[in-house]
Amino acid sequence: MQVSVRDNNVEQALRALKKKLQREGVFREMKLKQHFEKPSEKKARQKAEAVRRARKLARKKAQREGMM
Question: Which residues contact 24 (CB under 8 A, 6 or more apart)?
């Protein structure tokens, strides 16, 4: 991953780097790896995330269909 610094503006480059890391899920992954997660907990978390994603997708789809 690479971020360029323009006009010696390190703060702006740092913000861009943090945004890229956030999008990639690096912070989330680091937080999950801080402690051991039992396989049953991992499975339950992944299932809950899948349900959350499906609901979000359905909500967005319904909103698009309602707008058109």
Answer: 1
Distance CA 36, CA 34 (A): 7
For residue 16, give Cα distances in angstroms to 2, 11, 62, 63.
10, 9, 33, 30
> How far apart are alpha carbons 9 and 31 in whole angstroms?
29
- Is the pTM higher than 0.70? The answer reads no
Distance separating alpha carbons of residues 50 and 58, to the nearest angstrom: 12
Of 17, 19, 22, the closest CA to residue 3 belongs to 17
**Segment 1-45, tens digit of pLDDT:** 788 889 999 999 999 999 999 999 999 999 999 999 999 999 999
Q: Taking a C-beta distance cutoff of 8 angstroms, is the pair 16, 3 a contact?
A: yes
